[in-house]
Design brief:
alpha/beta, elongated, about 260 residues, 4-stranded mixed β-sheet, about 35% helix, Alpha/beta knot
Length: about 260
């Protein structure tokens, strides 16, 4: 895995949580000078108690590190784990000893969705989350905030060519299942106990054509007839990821 890199996390809740739960990785805290919010004062006291450098700065300085996000007068420079290189994916699969569980996201654009997917992946004990380097959101401050720390606990592998990565995974004995609303097969009818990659498409267009073609099978999450009749097209990608991952968890627990 690559060395840690410094990133900025912003917002009172995110900074307070980092200081309280992961102080060793917080390099410094910036707080707005003259801020009257009592939670700002609490963050300052907590950070100083944990020997974290604290600086009071003007709003412009906070705006500069926040990159357009709402900082609420608080930011922290955080030594976060970098994403994994794609050539490390084979080692991750092999280390899983035939039980690899991969979440592959083809073009997720919303950082809140990616953050929620990472939370589900971490909770499910996923081996890794695979995302393309292009035409997809990357792990940024919003993703990190939404993931509630999961971005640092599940390997996020950025790949240049997703179709090629799926081919490489198949050569490693990984079965590739793509989630598609129009598929005939049911998620609940497939065996998810071995080496498995679960592929979900982006919010707007779903999986790209080449991604679909490299799946071993397309499956859907069955919905009750009433829901289908009401025109429910598809679940939010992060909800679908949670449902799919935890079906794999259920099967593995049942043996």
């Amino acid at each position: 895995m690559s060395n840690k890199q410094n990133q900025w996390i912003v917002g009172i809740n995110a900074v307070a949580a980092a200081v309280e739960h992961d102080a060793d990785n917080v390099r410094e805290v910036l707080l707005e000078a003259g801020a009257k919010n009592p939670r700002i004062t609490e963050i300052e006291s907590d950070a100083r108690r944990r020997d974290i450098d604290v600086r009071r700065v003007n709003q412009q300085a906070l705006d500069g590190v926040a990159g357009g996000l709402r900082h609420q007068g608080a930011a922290a420079r955080y030594a976060a784990a970098k994403t994994w290189d794609e050539d490390e994916l084979e080692g991750l699969v092999e280390a899983a000893s035939g039980k690899a569980l991969l979440l592959v996201l083809d073009g997720v654009q919303d950082p809140h969705n990616l953050g929620a997917c990472l939370r589900s992946a971490a909770a499910a004990g996923a081996t890794a989350v695979v995302i393309p380097k292009d035409k997809a959101v990357q792990v940024n401050a919003t993703v990190r905030k939404t993931s509630a720390g999961a971005a640092d606990h599940v390997p996020v592998v950025r790949v240049t060519n997703l179709s090629r990565t799926l081919r490489d995974l198949q050569k490693l004995g990984v079965w590739i299942y793509g989630l598609a609303g129009e598929a005939d097969g049911s998620l609940y009818a497939i065996d998810l106990r071995g080496n498995v990659a679960l592929v979900l498409g982006g919010e707007a267009d779903g999986m790209r054509r080449l991604t679909r073609e490299h799946c071993d099978q397309l499956v859907t999450i069955p919905m009750p007839g009433a829901a289908a009749a009401a025109g429910v097209e598809s679940l939010n990608v992060s909800v679908a990821a949670g449902v799919t991952l935890f079906e794999a968890v259920r099967q593995r627990a049942a043996g």
